[in-house]
Structures are given as structure tokens and as C-alpha cells.
Amino acid sequence: MKEGYEVVYKRPKTLLDKRMHYCPGCFHATIHKLLMEIVEEMGIQEKTVGVCPVGCSVFAYDYMDIDMQEAAHGRAAAVATAIKRMLPDRYVFSYQGDGDLAAIGTAETIHACNRGEKFTFIFINNGIYGMTGGQMAPTTLEGQKTTTSPYGRNVQKLGMPLKMAEMVSQLAGVAYAERVSCNTPANTRKAKKALKKAFEIQGKGLGTTFIEVASNCPSGWKCTPVESLDWLKNKVYPYFPLGVFKDVPAVKEEV
Amino acid sequence: MLVEMIFSGFGGQGVLSMGKLLAYAAMKEGKEVSWMPSYGPEMRGGTANCIVNISDEPISSPVVTAYDVVVALNLPSLRKFEPRVKKGGILIWESSTIKQPPTRDDIKTYAVPAVDMASNDLKNVKVMNMLILGALVKAMAVVKTDSLLLALKETLPPRHHNLIPLNQQAIELGMAQVK
Amino acid sequence: MGEIKFMKGNEALAEAAIRSGLQGYFGYPITPQSEVVEYLAMQEPNHNYVLIQAESEVASVNMVYGAAAAGARVMTTTSSPGFSLMQEGVSYIACAELPCVFANIVRGGPGLGTIQASQGDYFQAVKGGGHGDYHLIVLAPNSVQEMVDHCRLAFELADKYRNPVMLLSDGSIGQMMEKVVLPEPIPYKPDKPWATTGKTPDRKRNIITSLYIQSEDMEKKNQTIQAKYQEITKNEIRYEKYRVDDAEIIISAFGLTSRICKKVVDLAREEGIKMGLFRPITVWPFPTDQFAEFAAQDRVKFFLSAEMNAGQMVEDIRLSVNGKKPVYFYGRQGGIVPTPEEILNAAKGHLK
Predict the structure, then answer these.
(1) Furthest-apart CA pair in chain A: how many Å?
(2) How far is the first Cα of chain C from the last one, in angstroms, to the nearest whole number?
(3) Among A33, A39, C61, C314, which is most buried by a count of CB atoms within 10 Å?
């Protein structure tokens, strides 16, 4: 490093130096980096096992320098359950999209949370099926157009978007549930804090930890990355509010 | 020698457990045994049966359709299995509840009023099946009485060992029914 | 000599798994298989295995995937409709080459069917069952003792080849009680450097996946597992012969039916009919060459396959015999177990 210079930004060693396949402006890359920063900062690379879903992040294992498993569509929670039960001193996370976690894998999600499986869900909710070309997700907003809801999501026919963080916070097994986003540097820092807190709670074995990221999909939403941030602010956050829905450790500390 | 048997009756009459006890006793005597229950959706009072094979040789087929011994504790079972007793075989039936006796004359039949005797003489209708089992081992010495008692001791949970004398009484009472 | 017990097939299977060093069991109750889960639940306090009654068979099989990929010795058991539900996961496990054991305590189908014993899942077991080109090693036990023996063998074969192994049993064997000699418990020390246990500085990260999105990579993956299947076929074919040396009729059956057919052979011999039984123990890999050898012998007049289905293994026998001799079939369905007499009559019907 040059004298007189200070490093203010670097790639964590746990994140491989590879060109990612994610579209420009997508939060996946940001969240990958936050996650790997946490693994590096906590010094838990040797003790971390991740589970990738089917969806855009199916290749997450190409970027993270940790042991990982690729799960069948929707089954990451079952896979992560078994890993954590077999290796209880490891840090285990599932990294899932909305189709994976909240449509095809809803049963696995709910039951893992209800059993209080001590791993961390990282739920990337961008309200659309990105990888397969922009079909409707269980979290697609009312009236939002997708390739399978070309006239906008009709909630009379298709129901309202599922609020997963709120839902799982009702389950006794869940120790921590928060919804975060990465639309601003401040929110990105908050997201990292939430992820780290989830990992710390997992380390203490207090229950399931669930971090939902209100994410974006400029390609699927047919807009620019900047416009996607506006959509988040104007449309997504009002329905999917950011914040902590459950914090059992904090409650315990107050008592 | 291979002995092929079926125990049949209502669920709750101890049909499956008497077959199991007999097979266990035979195993303790060094015999080859198989016990195959009928199974269906769980229902109290439904029909139940089990096929028990006891042999000196390894048992080829655990599934049998003609029997050396049939035990029938209710009318539907008697109707169903009486025709399947091998010629010269044995049929033991519960005669205080079944009012229509068997009709074949090419088999040996034994009427045992086990329900009445268990409730009147032993004051416990539950040991009715042991009475029948006593009659069976008297009619055909498939196992020794001692082996049955050993089987009771080894298969009953210790908290029920106080019931062994009653079961022994029932077996003996059953044996006395077969002349 | 191990411990002698009087046990149900399902319980014996569970006990054998424990004694083979079971580390994880994930399953869902279904008749006529539930005693496996019940037995493991009852024994759980005395052992160190992980036991989860999952929310579905779909979850069970994916828990098996996760635990096997984490290096553990794992098993799930189910019955026919449950195994249909698991097929997606089985295909993933086969491609990711994860050692694990499945047992299908088969009941009559299709559909919800009946809970009585059947052999109607033969095709599903030996031809793949899920999507893509893959095979399980499939053992077909015919007694409570073999539920025990095959269970341990299944774990060993699974580890040896990094391949899922299946016990193709049925409701009768699961439910019936027989004398069984239990093996001594063995401690299990996995040697699985490929497992995802956490990346240590001395190695690259381990990835367990069945995704090879480039066609060239996927073809290579297929070639690798096909080569493995050839190796398994070379080494692991198992079968049993009974009175075949001078047999003019070769009767063939697997699982429970093979025991009934032993009696058929004895009955036939009493009548002076020269019949013998050839019983595949591994139904995949299938003893193709052995059938071909019988077909090549002049004295052998025909084959008869007796099955509790509409005629499934008979197709593999026909492929093996390759038209050299007639191959007949006799079967019962819907949970009916055929009697020795009806099978014998079927065989006699072809004696012209």
C-alpha cells in the first residue's frame, strides 16, 4: 500500500475474486459481500456452511469461499436443518429467493422456523422470479406487472403478497426476524448489522434467525437500477416495511 | 416338522399377542418361527389375525392359506377359517360367544368357553386368550408350558410381572378343557 | 454369535441401522413403515443419532441430502406414495453422489392404493424413479434377518461407491416378526474429505451440487456416474440359487415372493417336476449374465417370474434371456400375496 494512503474499501478474502453473473444494480452482489465480510470479521470461515437455492443465486457457491451445498428448489430449509443438526457447532445459513422460500418451499420454511432450527435464513425478496425471466412471485405487489401477471397482480384471484418476516415472527422457534434493504449506504450498513446479529444469535443457539432483504430486480422490473430504488421506496417499503419484527434476545435482556 | 397356524378374532381379544407369545416360546426352544399379522387402518374392535409358523427348518413361506391349527375367537373368523383347516387338523373356538359351532367332521374341534371361564373363574376376561393358548398346547404340543411361562416373563414389561401367576392359571385352566 | 431377538422387520431394520452407526434419520410416518420411526424415537435417548420427524417426505429426503453432504451416515424409510414424493430429492442425491440409505416398505398402488404388501415399485426402484439417468443400488431382502443384514451392507455399499442404496422391501416383511440375529454395534468413523464440514485452510472449499449448467460439464458428470455404475455392476451382483442344478423350469422371484417360491419348488419336486429357484438379491445391478447362462442350457425349458405386481422384473429377465427361451409371468396385485399352489399351477400350465 502506498504511504499516506488508507484502505477504506476492500473485498473480504472470503469473497472470491470472480466476475459475478448478477445483473447491474442487483442487490445480490451487495448481500454476498456483506455476508462474506461478516464471515471474515467473525473468523468463522472454517465453521460456516451455506446452502444455495434455485433462483438467481443458484451459483452463490461460485463466489463465496466457504463450504456450500446446492439444494433443490424450495428445500434449502430442510437441507440447512440437517446440516445444522449434524454439525451443531457450525454456522449454517440458507440463502433463498422469494419463489424458493415463500412459494415452493413454504412448508419447509414454516416448519424449520417452528422447530426453532438454529440456522440463519437470508431471504432475498425482490417480488419476482428473476432467473426464469420475470414471472410472478408470492411477494409480487398488488397490480405489479410480470410476465405471468401481464395486467398486474390481481389479488382477488391470486391473494395478497406474503409477508414472510412478519409471518415467521409469530412462530415460537424464531429468535430474530428483521427486514432490511440495501437502497442507501445507511440501509446497507443496517443490513450488515442485522446479518451479523443473526449470526451471533445463531452462535448462541437461541433459535431461528430470519433476515429478509427487500431487494430489487431492475431487469425483471423493466427499469434502470436507479428507478428500481425509487420503486422500492415508493411501492415496496410501504407494503413490506423495514424493521425488526422479533428480537427474543433483546426482550430477554430487558427482563 | 412345520406347524402352520392362524389366530383370529376381534381386535382387543389378544389375538395378535397370543400368536406372538407362542412364536416367542417356540423360538426359545430353538425353533424357527414367523409371525405375520393382518394389518389395516387402526380400529378398535375390528377383525384381526396373525399367521404363526413354527418349524425345525428355516421357514420358506410366511404366508399360508391352509392351516394345521386354526384359533377362532369370533363367528366371522370361524366362518372364514374353518374351511381352511387341513384335513385332520385342529380348530379351537371360543364357545361362550360363538353360538354356531363348526360343522366339519374331518378335523378335530375343541370348544373352549374361554370368555365365561376367564370372567367367572379368574375374574379377568383379559386372560381369555391365555386360556385358549393353554387349550392349544394341550391339543397339540407345539411348545412346552414352561416355554410359554418363560415367554411371558421375557416379553411382559416388568411392571406387569405381577400378572404372570394369573396368566399361568389361565393357561392351566385352558389345558384342562382339552381331554 | 450376535444377540437373538424376535422382531418385526421394521423394528429390526431400525435396530440394524443403529448398530451400523446411524448418525441421522429423517422420516415421515406412513403405513406399513411407521414402526421404523417409532422404534428410533423410542431408542433415541440411548444413542447419539439425530432424529427428525419431518413435515413431509419431501422435507425428509432433502434433510437426508443435507446430512449426507455434511458427512453423516444417514437413512430415511417410507412406503410407496412417500417414496414417489421423494423422487426429486433422490435424483439430486444420485447426481451429487451422496451416500445414504433408503428403505421402501412397499404397499399396493397406484395412487393411495392399499396398505397391504406389494412389489409394484420395482420399476421405480431399479429404473431410476426420478428424472435423469441414474441408478440406486437396490437390495431386496426376503426376511427379517435380511432387513438387518442388508441394512448394514447398504451403508457399506453407499460409502464405498458414494451412491444411494435402497432396500426394496414390502409391507409383509416390515410387519412380520421372525427370529433375528443382531450384529455387534460398530462405531462409525466417516472418511469423507469431500463433505461440507467447513472449509479449513488446508483445502479448497467443498461444494455439493447437482448443477452443471454447461452441457459439456453435465455430459462429463453423466459419464462419471455411468462408469461408476459399470463398476458396481461388475462387483456387486448378488443372488441366491435353490435346486437349480438339474432344473428344467427356472422360477424367479425377489423379496417375499422368493420365499413363497421356495415352497413352490419343493411342491413341484414332490410331483417330480424339475424346478429350481433363481432369486436376484440385488435387483439393481441385475444378474443378467446368470439368467443368460440358464437360457443357454438345453435342459431349461422356460422361465417363470412370480411377482406381486403386473409384471415388472419379468421385463429384465426377458432382456437377459434375449428370446432364447420363453419367459412367463404370474402375479397378484393390490396387496394380495400369491399362494405357493397358485404359482405352481401357473408353472404347470406352461408345461406342455
Answers:
(1) 64
(2) 49
(3) C61
Domain boundary among C182, C209, C235: C235
pLDDT, one tens digit per residue, over B66-97 is 999 999 999 999 999 999 999 999 999 999 99
Q: Which of C235, C256, C290 is the last residue in one of the domains?
A: C235
DSSP string covering C210-263: ----SHHHHHHHHHHHHHHHHHHHHH---EEEES-TT-SEEEE--THHHHHHHH
Q: Which three cell numbers stand for residue A230?
A: 425509487
Q: What is the Cα–Cα distance from C41 to B82, expressed in whole angstroms? A: 41
Interface mutation vs chain B, best among C112, C177, C263, most B CBs within 10 Å: C177
| Residue C40 in this model has a pLDDT that exceeds 80 | yes
Q: Would you say the C-alpha torsion C346, C348, C351, C352 has a positive or negative sign?
A: negative
Residues C191 and C231 in one domain: yes
pLDDT attached to residue A255: 65
- Tell me whether residues A90 and C198 touch, CB distance under 8 A: yes
What secondary structure letter does DSSP report for C143? S
> Could you tell me if A30 lies within 8 Å of chain C, comparing CB atoms?
no
List chains touching C (3+ CB pairs under 8 A).
A, B
- Domain count within chain A: 1
ipTM: 0.94
Residue in B42, B4, B2, B35 with CA at minimum distance from that of residue B18:
B35
- Number of domains chain C is built from: 2
Going by the DSSP 8-state scheme, the letter that residue A89 receives in this structure is T
What percentage of chain A reaches a pLDDT higher than 70?
99
